[in-house]
Amino acid sequence: MIKIILFDLDGTLLPMDQDAFTKAYFKRLAAKLAPHGYEPQKLIDAVWAGTAAMVKNDGGCTNEEVFWKRFTEIMGAGTLRDKPIFDEYYRVEFQNVKEACGFTPQAKSAVKQLREAGYRLALATNPIFPAVATQSRIRWAGLEPEDFELYTTYENTCYCKPNPSYYKDILTRLRCEADECLMVGNDVEEDMVAQSVGMRVFLLTDCLINKRDKDISAFPQGGFSDLCRYMEHGQNGGTGN
Description:
By secondary structure, the protein is an alpha/beta fold. 41% of the residues lie in helices and 8% in strands. The protein has 2 domains: 4-16 and 102-234, Rossmann fold, CATH 3.40.50; 19-98. It has helices at 18-33, 40-55, 63-75, 83-91, 105-116, 131-140, 164-174, 224-234; strands spanning 4-7, 120-123, 181-185, 200-204, 221-222. A 5-stranded parallel beta sheet has the order 2-1-3-4-5. The chain is globular and about 55 Å long. The two termini are 20 Å apart.
């Protein structure tokens, strides 16, 4: 029986067009760093390279450590002294990136309903952002970090999606079995891979990402109302449709 529900954030609890979000994110980051000598395109390329390194992280150190190691390899070791500027960006300018995101009250309602039904809740968002940015995006979705028993960030996690080890690590930290968990997300590749470690899954289709055009017919799926109905009636084998 499912006891814990894991939610993805971007495109799931927080509606967004990934491309629009990325453009807004980099536009403001480049503007923030330009006065400090950062050439915009080189900065963006270095951030992408650091992100790629995090995705490949094998668990030997935190994603934060992996990111800054790769970033400084490209930009120079001296850029570590500018880390406080990056931190300030997330506290200040990044807050305006909210404009590139949507909002759905159904997300907050579903989280509240499922918590009141007795489920433990965790936020399984790809941990490529620092905690301050993750906390902000949680609030943009109308929720609070305290709504979740755990939320993954680049400081506290050593893997990324779609690595199955990311989900195994969450199981260890939550001290639960895979078949006690349901992973809810919008990305077929990154979120539904939780099924490979024994978790149940639910595909949130409002902002569906299916880059490889996989057959999704076998996944329980739908919107937030479908998810709540699935948890009420279908979790022991129904489709949710």
